[in-house]
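Escalation from tier 1.

The customer reports that the assembly of two entities below gives different structure tokens on two consecutive runs. Tier 1 could not reproduce it. I'm attaching the input and our single run for tier 2 to review.
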Amino acid sequence: MAVGNILLPKLYPVAGISLGTSKAGIKQHDRDDLLVLQMLAGGSCAAVFTQNAFCAAPVEIAKSHLSQQPRWLIINSGNANAGTGKQGLDDAINCCASLAQNVAANEMQVLPFSTGVIGEYLPVAKIQAAIPVAIENLSENNWSAAAHAIMTTDTFAKGASKIIAMNGGNITLTGISKGAGMIQPNMATMLGFIATDANIEADLLQECLQIATDLSFNRITVDGDTSTNDSCVLMASASSKVPEIVKNTDNYNLFLAAIIELCKDLSEAIIRDGEGATKLIRIQVAEALNDAEAVLVAKTIAHSPLVKTAFFACDPNWGRILAAVGRAEITALDITKIGIYLDNVCIVNNGERAHDYTEVAGQAVMDQAEISIVVKLGRGEAIQEVLTCDLSYDYVKINAEYRT
Amino acid sequence: MAVGNILLPKLYPVAGISLGTSKAGIKQHDRDDLLVLQMLAGGSCAAVFTQNAFCAAPVEIAKSHLSQQPRWLIINSGNANAGTGKQGLDDAINCCASLAQNVAANEMQVLPFSTGVIGEYLPVAKIQAAIPVAIENLSENNWSAAAHAIMTTDTFAKGASKIIAMNGGNITLTGISKGAGMIQPNMATMLGFIATDANIEADLLQECLQIATDLSFNRITVDGDTSTNDSCVLMASASSKVPEIVKNTDNYNLFLAAIIELCKDLSEAIIRDGEGATKLIRIQVAEALNDAEAVLVAKTIAHSPLVKTAFFACDPNWGRILAAVGRAEITALDITKIGIYLDNVCIVNNGERAHDYTEVAGQAVMDQAEISIVVKLGRGEAIQEVLTCDLSYDYVKINAEYRT
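Tier 1 run:
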């Protein structure tokens, strides 16, 4: 199941960006599993990738092609092409080459992406056979089909879209993402593809994407398992009539804020679809010495199986939150200054059970589908938020049966 | 359920150490939940405690009493007396004082220990009422009853015992432990109590205990959640006729080796009883630059919910192990030198799927109840082993229903 609103919102077409999907039959045979994305010439492209040392073959290739003014993306679901060594690299390159050949482009301008099971070789022939149909289908109106084609264990398609009024006209920003398990992105999410018709130079676009992912995709976790394939791409087609976006202008600030908001929407959707999730948990750590410390405490709570199972059970067993804060390896933590809240209910005050805390008040919060944990460390002014979900029977079921 | 041999072995009495149990009725009403341990005058005592910043009230008190030549332990199950602030400290002191009063001792010579739910005040009156019966029952032959009295979510009592032949005679070493969840001890286990009749000075005893716990209790994890109450005590009654054990002698080496082995037995028993465990997983990381790096990689694998659920499903989904190694944040890791094995089956060679790996061979290993994962990093000569268990439906069930 999934938590809260999971309807795919209206995804506005982005001028200069076309998408086409088709059935390669890699793992799913009843739906499209191949996506091709085309950007008109003259745009710019930014991307961030997983920090997992075992990064997948397509990630290696996409990294090496990023500086070649990429205009094409080829994305398959059902197979991650990770842990596949030299053959995996050849397979990823062959997918790029096949697409390039079909559209008379340079293969260096194609970025490949794969998501699915790790350690199996990519069925390249199936993908090659499906490329022409995807190209035939290319259209600016295919964002919804694209969001569906990149799903794996996702239970719903994820996307977000906004139109930003700027000096000189409107800019459109539309993105899709996928991911439900093996989610603790580090520099990027499982897979995210965002496009805009803005006119912006590649280096500045990259800077915007890095700021936004750090505040969104890098602040979510389902199970603490950073994937081998995490990637997030932001393409700007320069098709809008709005003048080029340059740093330290009103338009830049509007643009960056919109990207951050869009990335937060896309990453929150991943947590709502966390494998087996029944609850969305926002963990805010405040009064920290610095951001890193706030994130460390928040992630220690977010990764605690005991905390996660208590939320699944709607059990205000707050001692588990306290224990997680205490093991987060914060130097010279003075527990007598710590406060912990479930929504607005204070459970721990000055490091001990709040004297006016009642189980009834705690239970009322725990019965909700969306809950905030607020931890005040009493050490400084930094504040950070991490999103996670609970740990349910279905998480075990989904991951015990993943390959069967 | 639990994995493998879970029968409590014969626990030899230790001269100079007596144990008595009784029913305080804290959480369980059908079995003893209070344990008193007495050591004759003239012995020495060592202890290690949790590094959790929110360490429980009894841990604080035990730490402060440790230098006062402790001769008495008072241990309750069913309530952790953690997150209870000033009142918790008073409650722990009152338990010590009550015991001391009953046996005409100094309360500073009593170490208190508690295990159970966090955040509820200790029912001191119930404990005080049960102390006289425990004292009446004091006997050197009560190790089995003691092992049962300290259980919480444990499904079996845990103990180990050995007689060591030394220069000058035999030494007996007997210990008990408890723990099944909230298990990633840091300097000690959930609760471990070990006694010997050896004659050894307290500082050297402490050194032995620290070496042993670092190689045993600090190398196990069920769920990564370091408890607020972890404590391990080693008492030496000096009742044996073997001369005092001093450093850098044959007897010292024999003694230390025996303590390490006993601590490993006790900590392995905790993993066999890991909440919901169906598999015992030994994760050995070899060819690491140093011990810390080896432990980091091993624990990253051990804490991966995806790895743990794959083991529960007997699924040789080894890509999850590879992904965990890759996210362990090892600086300058060269994946092309990495090998990964399931028992003797090579699954990853030179950083990619081993060419002769077959699913049949992997499946045969995964069908076992006890499995080794061996990771060779190709960076150095350090080697460390961490024990863990799988993540099953029952883990979620046990922890979602813990307080009901």
